Amino acid sequence: MARYELIAHNRAGQPHGRPVFVTADSPAEAVMIGAQTLRRVTERDHVHADVYAVYRHRRVRGRRLVGAFSPDDPEAGTAGVREPRRPLPTPPSLRAEADLPAYPDN
Q1: Residue ranges of region Disordered (predicted)?
Q2: Low-confidence residues of the chain, pLDDT below 50?
Q3: What is the DSSP string of 54-102?
Q4: What is the residue extent of each domain of the chain?
Q5: Which of 2, 20, 26, 100 maximizes the CB count within 10 A of its CB?
């Protein structure tokens, strides 16, 4: 388990409120655990948070950004959505072809 720091950011990207420290297995789990506290802080100050930034603390390297989550639905992500490996074929088109008229050889 790692130690994460959650900070709410406004639309301009400026941090707002105090950071919340959480111990979790992943950044997504840290957001699920600390989201209630961050919501209370932003509601108390009447500020809308657009992004929750998640930082991981390490002893040697210090603080490092590991993710950013939307506070509206922290569990929503791109799960189940992936890019196709090849582009889809173009739809069939209507095409009319006529046989060339037969000319006798002279």
Answers
A1: 66-106
A2: 74
A3: EEEEETTTEEEEEEEE-SS-TT-SSTT----SSPPPPPP------PPPP
A4: 2-69
A5: 20
